Automatic annotation (TrEMBL):
Record-given protein name: Pseudouridine synthase
Species of origin: Steroidobacter gossypii
GTP-binding among keywords: no
Domain RNA-binding S4: from-to ranges: 15-77
Keyword terms: Isomerase, RNA-binding
């Protein structure tokens, strides 16, 4: 490991630290922001725990948990790259259909199965990939795995508002009054990196009843269609619990224009150029709204 130089931290030029980290495949930008504010990141040997912070990927040394991160240099020409002996970075986009019990992390100290294990080994070896957004262990459905920090940022940041659609099976027969409360929204309490708590408003873009099941043997159930444009931790489960509905099954069936099609639980597919262009077009359109 090379020793970090005693250089000052740039605060007004270069690339935003969280973007440089995301481009290095450490996670989506919002995940990288959490790593920074938790005090896990050093730049040139100094801990950075406040934002904004800017770095020069070509000269600054960034460490995460005391390990040096190899930062890709942006906008490097083909000629410059050839002179430097480097190679063009390949952007990879994998859509997986996450089964129940698989966790949305890149590794787990408890040895539980994680979403990267669903990605073909050849792709994992080629680039450092990470999941875009989260699905808890009990939830199933679509999840994007990539090394494209910019697209990950656009798919998760609230200002772009990319819709994610879910099918939710609840216990009991949902009422119109309960759905009205969900549409109106509510405040959810969330922990912060420093151990304090903050409340943030949550609402469903749309929620409708697909079918009610009256079943004396197994119990009454309701199948709902829910669309979110901004997600908080376990938001659907928490909101439904607030109105008296318990989630039995939760599946994400769409991310923007992407749907599972014939992708079965546990399977993964490499997205082609057309699908990636559709995603980019969706983020562009949402950003202009």
């Amino acid at each position: 490991m090379r020793k970090p130089p005693a250089a000052p931290i740039s605060t007004a030029k270069g690339v935003r630290l969280q973007k440089a980290m995301a481009d290095a495949g450490l996670g989506a930008r919002r995940d990288c922001e959490d790593m920074i504010t938790a005090g896990r990141v050093k730049v040139n040997g100094r801990v950075v725990d406040t934002l904004p912070c800017f770095v020069d990927p070509a000269s600054d040394v960034v460490e995460l948990d005391d390990e040096v991160v190899e930062l890709p240099v942006p906008e490097q020409s083909t000629a410059d790259s050839a002179k430097a002996g480097g190679k063009a970075r390949t952007l990879i986009y994998v859509l997986i259909n996450k089964p129940k019990g698989v966790i949305t992390t890149t590794s787990d100290p408890e040895g539980r199965r994680n979403v990267l294990e669903l990605v073909p080994t050849s792709l994992r070896r080629e680039e450092r990939l990470f999941p875009v957004g989260r699905l808890d262990g009990d939830s199933t459905g679509l999840l994007l795995i990539t090394n494209d920090g910019d697209l990950a940022y656009q798919l998760t940041h609230p200002k772009f508002g990319i819709p994610k659609e879910y099918r939710v099976l609840t216990s009991g027969l949902a009422s119109d009054e309960q759905l009205q409360k969900l549409r109106a929204g509510m405040y959810l309490v969330n922990p912060t990196a420093d151990g304090s708590k903050t409340s943030k408003r949550a609402s469903m873009e749309s929620v409708r009843i697909i079918k009610r099941f009256v079943d004396r043997a197994r119990g009454d159930r309701t199948l709902l269609s829910v669309t979110l444009r901004e997600g908080q931790n376990r938001e659907i489960r928490r909101m439904l619990a607030r109105v008296g509905l318990k989630v039995r099954e939760l599946e994400r069936v769409a991310i923007g224009p992407l749907r599972a099609g014939d992708l079965k639980p546990g399977q993964a597919k490499l997205l082609g150029k057309k699908d990636v262009e559709k995603l980019r077009a969706a983020t562009l359109s949402a950003g202009l709204d």
